[in-house]
Amino acid sequence: MNLYGTILPSLGKLSLLLALNMSGNSFHGHLPSELANLQRLELMDLSHNELSGGIPPWFGNLTKLQHLSLNGNNFTGNISPYLFNMINLETMDFSHNFLQGSLPHEIGNLPKLKILRLRYNKLSNPIPAAIYSVSSLEVADFMFNNFSGSISRNIGNLTKLREIYVAQTDIGDIEAIIIYKSKQDEACEIPREIGNLRNLQIFDGGNASLTGHIPASIFDISSLRYILLGRNNLSGTLPIDICSNQSRLEALYLARNQLNGEIPSGLGGCRKLQNLDFSINRFSGQIPRSIGNLTGLKELYLGDNELKGGIPWEVGNILNLEVLDIGEMGLTGLVPQVLFNISTLKTINLPNNSLSGSLPWDICLHLTSLERIDFYRNELTGNVPKSIGNCTFLQLIGLGKSHLSGEIPEEIGNLQHLSTLSMGGNNLTGSIPSKIFNMSTIELIALQLNKLSGHLPSSSEYKLPKLTVISLAQNRLSGKLPSCITNASTLNALEIGHNSFSGFLPSSFGNNLRLLESLSLQYNNLSLEYSSPEHSFLSSLMNCRTLRHLSIESTTYGGVLPASIGNLSASLQ
Predict the structure, then answer these.
(1) Is residue 386 classed exposed, middle or buried when 0-12, 13-18 and 19+ CB atoms within 10 A define those classes?
(2) Cα–Cα distances in Å, from 220 out to 189, 217, 260, 274?
């Protein structure tokens, strides 16, 4: 209604009033003490106003009040213990204010309390143990405060609990959420009594300094949809029958812990699982074949563990998979060709393994949604298929440090979303397709350590507006450096050493490449322009304020060093 002003004391004369709703207005000032006379009041909603001052203790006199909402105001000060004399209270919402101090232990005097919301205040100290005696509690929201302490084993007493928020994290508007967290510098363990919460749907304890083992009782809660325990110091193994009671589980995030042992073969029983992240742990053994039973899986992260063996062909049964990330482990064997039949795949991330085989000639026949393909540092052989140009959504091609041969397909130049092209450290031959030097989206070109030859395109119409890194070192390239490189104003690193490039590098070179951090020109046939000590190629580098590495061995420089060269000494490494 957009009413404004102060709340009139005369409202206290309405002694028969049962409900008072003045929410969503612009009332300001303190609450008048006369409101304490509304002894029959069952509902008071003053939310989303501009009321200030402390929450008055006379609220404790309103013993018939069932719903009290003061959220979205400017209330300050401590929460008075007298407020908890409202023995019939079912809902207390003080969120989005400026309350401070501790939550009084008298909270335990509210036997009918179902909903407690305190988020976005300045409350501190441990949450009182008395909260665990309020067996009627269904929702408790303590987020965005400064509470400390650890998880009490008495949490298991709150068998009706559906939602509890105890940290600066929010998952959105999903119903039935439980979030356990402590301050980041306070380690705590997960009590096994959490297994008593049979209605629990989401358990989020990510990045909460949790230690110890994950209690097996958690996996007995059949109502769970999300288990989110990443970025902690959890250790131990997972039960082999991890999914025997998990018919509803949709997400299991355990990344960045110290978990060990084998990945349970029973994992394949979580048939509704969509997101699985076990990355950056100490899991050993092999990837279980039962993982192919997770036919609804969309994201699979197993990288950076101690797994061995190959990728089971059963992964090809996961026909809804969008992200496959199992790099950094030294996996061996052939790359299963069935991977390239999963039409939903957007990311194939398998770097730093020892996988062998070749890329299929029709690689993009089914991978029409592919955005990232990364086989960096593997044992791939054969050619880069021309059909890779049909993966029109590709943003990253990572095929470096393998044993690929043949030429770079011209079709790569047709990829209008490509930002990273990394094929260094192979046996590639032929020239670099000219279209690559006119890609408006490309940021990184890494083709070093190959056997590439020929000239780079000289057309002045070619532009690389987003290029930050280009590495062409140790090839057999020749000719002049094109203007699309020497005018690439976003360039951070230019590495072309050990080739046969020729021509002059102008005295304006550094004026155009002011963001350079690394410049390697050594062992070419280049000449560095020199007109005078202060008007030369080297003096232009004074404009490159972030230059850290400079290598110009075996280039021709027909002049004296400019005095300003000393200005680079502080930055060069």
Answers:
(1) middle
(2) 18, 5, 21, 19
Residue 379's Cβ-count burial label (10 Å; 0-12, 13-18, 19+) is middle
Q: For residues 491-524, b (16+ Cβ closer than 10 Å) or e, as one string?
A: bbbbbbbbbebeeebebebbebbbbbbbbbbbbb
Mean residue pLDDT of the chain comes to 90
User: Measuring CA to CA, how many Å separate 178 from each of 81, 202, 228, 389?
Assistant: 27, 5, 10, 46
Q: Which two tokens stand for residue 19?
A: 């409900």
d(C-alpha 466, C-alpha 420), whole Å: 11
* pLDDT (tens digit per residue) in 10-25: 999 999 999 999 999 9
CB 159 within 8 A of CB 135: yes
Tokens 């400390």 found at: 148
Q: Which pair of tokens denotes residue 310?
A: 């190959």
Contact assessment for residue 530 and residue 558, using Cβ atoms and an 8 Å cutoff? yes
**285: Cβ–Cβ under 8 A, 6 or more apart, which residues?**
261, 262, 263, 307, 308
Q: What is the DSSP letter of 383?
A: B
Classify burial at 570, counting beta carbons within 10 Å of its beta carbon; exposed 0-12, middle 13-18, buried 19 or more.
Answer: exposed
Question: What residues form DSSP beta bridges with 478?
Answer: 455, 500
Task: Flag whether pLDDT at 170 surpasses 50.
Answer: no
Task: Report the alpha-carbon distance of residue 434 to residue 418 in Å, rounded.
Answer: 15
Q: Residue 164's pLDDT is what? A: 73
Q: How far is CA 353 from CA 198, 245, 357, 377, 427, in A?
A: 42, 34, 12, 7, 19
Residues 320-328, mean pLDDT to the nearest whole number = 97
Q: What is the pLDDT of residues 256-288, one digit of tens each?
A: 999 999 999 999 999 999 999 999 999 999 999
Q: Could you write out the DSSP letters of every residue in 81-136? A: GGGGG-TT--EEE--SSEEEEPPPGGGGG-TT--EEE--SSEEEEEPPGGGGG-TT
CA dist 506 and 141 (Å) reads 65
pLDDT-derived band at 432, boundaries 50, 70, 90: very high
The residue type at 241: D
Residue 181 Cα distances to 144, 188, 287, 363, 505, angstroms: 12, 9, 31, 45, 58
Signed CA dihedral, 536, 538, 542, 547: sign only: positive
Confidence of residue 424 (pLDDT cuts 50, 70, 90): very high
Query: Residue 198: what residue type?
Result: R
Q: What separation in angstroms does the CA of 478 have from each of 89, 405, 431, 454, 486?
A: 82, 20, 10, 6, 16
Quick: pLDDT tens for 62-87: 999 999 999 999 999 999 999 999 99
Phi, psi (degrees; rounded to nearest 5) at 438 = -140, 35
Task: List pLDDT tens digits, range 230-246.
Answer: 999 999 999 999 999 99
The whole-number pLDDT of residue 168 equals: 42
Close Cβ partners of 353 (under 8 Å, ≥ 6 residues apart): 326, 327, 328, 329, 330, 331, 332, 377, 378
Left, alpha or beta for 304 (phi > 0: left; psi -120 to 50: alpha)? left
Name the phi and psi angles at 61, rounded to 5.
-80, -15
Alpha carbons 29 and 378: distance in angstroms, whole number: 69
Contacts of 516 (CB under 8 A, 6+ apart): 491, 492, 493, 494, 510, 541, 544, 546, 547
